[in-house]
Amino acid sequence: MRRLLSLLPALVALVLAFLIAESGTREDFFVVGTPEQKTSLRALFQLLARETQPGATRFTILDQITQELRLQGEVPRINLLLTTYTSQNPSDPFGAHYLYEVAENYRAAGALPLARVYYRRILREYPDLVEKGESLHYLSLMRLIPLETDPSAKKEAFEQLNARFRYKMTTPDLFYAWGRASESLGQWDDAQTAYASFLKFSDPTVAGDPKAASRVHSLIDLSQTDRAWVRRDLGDLIAQVKKAILASDTTTMETLRAKVGFFAVSWDNQDVTDTLSEAFDIRLFLRELVRQANYGSGTDVRFSDTLDEGSNDSEAYLRTTGWNYRIPTWYFYFRRVEYPADPDINGSWEWAGLFFGEKL
């Protein structure tokens, strides 16, 4: 149903085009409304017919015609009028204006595929215009980018925006979306360039994606490490972590823990991505805790036989007990690595952190 509704403006345009063909003249088809409105429109079309050269005078007359039609709610007629005019007058210097009005009409009507077609045409076929201090090519790019569903086309739009209007790229979400488009194409170097610009903002946030900044930080940091702690098999990683803890092998523990974004927090911490290892020496912290837990005749640490029920295909929690550091229960947290730049580790597992206490 949604797709059918999005096609409705196009179907209306086709019907109108057919009706034009059946009408006596093109102008007669657009002369609608009350007797007074018809008189006004007919006079405007007569003025338009007398003006033989494209330019400012025609622009003014067409603008008056479209205003009259818009007051009557005749947006499909406006679209048909302006697209027909531009196709018949390809040298008109105001072509970008006419098609931008059409594109905006389709966008407002929810006919996004049609809007996308006309934004593309403006950029490809018509010279830029500055209206009210703003470039129509810039406005078209800004409208087009969220409408592009093909990653290559979206990336191309970003590159054009960057090449021509870099000084207007003043929000971090643009660079984040550019990076995501490059990622989806497997072009990691381009993604890193976009993400580096994203992180230069004092507050690199993206509406609707609260973890955007932490994700980008992780990707950038991962690119600068050897990723030696990553394991393809979760069971193998857990077995190695267990063995290291039971043997008080803190050197291996340090080797196995994630070197990017590792955390150690209580369950009531709402944002573990803000808890970075730089807040304290995580190596000394783990070494002391393991030493205390294994002090004396043997280890008191016990691991659950199965993963916690909150585990899924992307995250895993392993409950342990017997720790001597204030809180005896810890949950070891494992997660899949998201790093498309390296297919060999993308989707593998890492030991990413610790939660202290029983789950809330």
Describe the structure.
- This protein has 360 residues and is α+β, with helices and mostly antiparallel strands.
- It folds into three domains: 2-147, no CATH class; 168-224, no CATH class; 234-356, Nuclear Transport Factor 2, Chain: A (Roll).
- Helix content is 54%, strand content 9%.
- α4 (56-71) packs antiparallel against α5.
- It is elongated.
- The chain starts with a helix and ends with a strand.
- Mean pLDDT is 86; it is low at 1-7, 12-25 and 274-279.
Quick tags:
disordered N terminus; 7 strands; 3 domains; elongated; 360 residues; Nuclear Transport Factor 2, Chain: A; alpha+beta
Q: How would you summarize this macromolecular structure in one to three sentences?
A:
It contains 15 helices and 7 strands.
Spatial separation of the terminal alpha carbons: 43 Å
> How is the largest sheet built, in terms of strand order?
3-7-6-5-4
What's the overall geometry? Answer: elongated
Beta-strand content? 5-15%
Major beta-sheet overview: 5 strands, mixed
Mean pLDDT: 86
Give the oligomer, counting copies of the same chain as homo and different chains as hetero.
single chain
Computed Rg: 31 Å
Q: Count the strands? A: 7
Structural class: alpha+beta
What sequence of helices (H) and strands (E) makes up the elements?
A: HHHHHHHEEHHHHHHHEHEEEE
Helical amount among residues, as a percent range? 40-55%
Low-confidence runs (pLDDT<50, min 5 residues)?
Answer: 1-7, 12-25, 274-279
Continuous helix count: 15
**Count of distinct structural domains:** 3
